[in-house]
Amino acid sequence: ISVLFVIGCKTTFHLTPEQQQILSTHRTVSILPPKIIFDEIDTSNEKENDYEKKEAYFFQNQFQNILERKMNKYTVIFQDISKTNILLDNEGIRFNDLYNKDKAELGKIFGTDAIIMDTIHKYKPVMTYVPPTNMYYSGYYVYRTTVEINVAIYNGIDGKLLWHGTRYISENSNTYTIEQMGMELIDDVCNQLPYKRK
Fold first, then answer.
1. What percentage of the chain exceeds 70 in pLDDT?
2. 10 Å Cβ neighbour count for 141?
3. pTM assigned to the model
4. pLDDT digits over 62-103, tens only?
5. pLDDT tens string 52-62
6. Helical H runs in the chain?
7. Furthest CA-CA distance within the chain
8. CA distance 171 to 181
9. How many C-beta neighbours within 10 Å does residue 100 have?
10. What does DSSP say about strands 161-172 and 140-155: parallel, antiparallel, or unpaired?
């Protein structure tokens, strides 16, 4: 699906020399299930809250699958997400409380050098006019959905933020699903990670 989308960049993935030096020492990295924000979902509703949780674990799994396909391109090993999630369960850390936890505490629980945390935000679809491509066709309106991913890498020892950035996709809501757009964004982020071999 990578040829179907235009990916936008809202922020650059920037590194200071100090951050780069710390990242170069990392050998193991944990991937957390992302925080999910869907504008059309009422998170106070238990059923819809469960849907967000289900989507979070889906995208966590996709993150791992994409990284596994690119494994030889990285200088680090990514902890299997099943182990990551079991460690969270053993500590009694619930999904809804995960993103409020101290990053250094999480690093100690996982025993990894770094933690990848991300947020996937699906904005409410907006009616958008699509102009005609030539004189023989008229323009039309479609609902366009924007999906945004914010990704951060935290140091496992002290919880310090080392790297972060944002990407987004805006596409026809009737043509592409949130899963398709989210997976494309994750794939793009994986290509930007600061652990790629030179």
1. 87
2. 9
3. 0.85
4. 999 999 999 999 999 999 999 999 999 999 999 989 999 999
5. 899 999 999 99
6. 17-23, 46-69, 81-90, 103-110, 178-192
7. 64
8. 8
9. 7
10. antiparallel
- The single residue listed with the structure tokens 């491509």 is 133
Give tens-digit pLDDT for 146-159: 899 999 999 999 99
Burial class (CB in 10 A: 0-12, 13-18, 19+), 19: middle
Q: Where do we find the tokens 């071999």?
A: 197
Vertex 182 angle, CA 176 and 187, to 5°: 115
Q: Token digits for 130?
A: 């699509």
Amino acid at 183: M
DSSP 66-102: HHHHTGGGBSSEEPPHHHHHHHHHHTT--GGGGGGS-
User: d(Cα 193, Cα 92) in Å, to the nearest integer?
Assistant: 30
Beta carbons within 10 angstroms of residue 53's beta carbon: 15
Determine contact, residues 155/25, Cβ cutoff 8 Å. Answer: no
Structure tokens at 144: 């366009």
Please enumerate, as own/partner, the contacts of 99-106 that have beta carbons within 8 Å and a separation of 24 or more. 99/35, 102/159, 103/154, 103/155, 103/159, 103/160, 104/156, 104/157, 104/158, 104/159, 105/159, 106/30, 106/32, 106/154, 106/156, 106/159
Strands 140-155 and 114-122: antiparallel
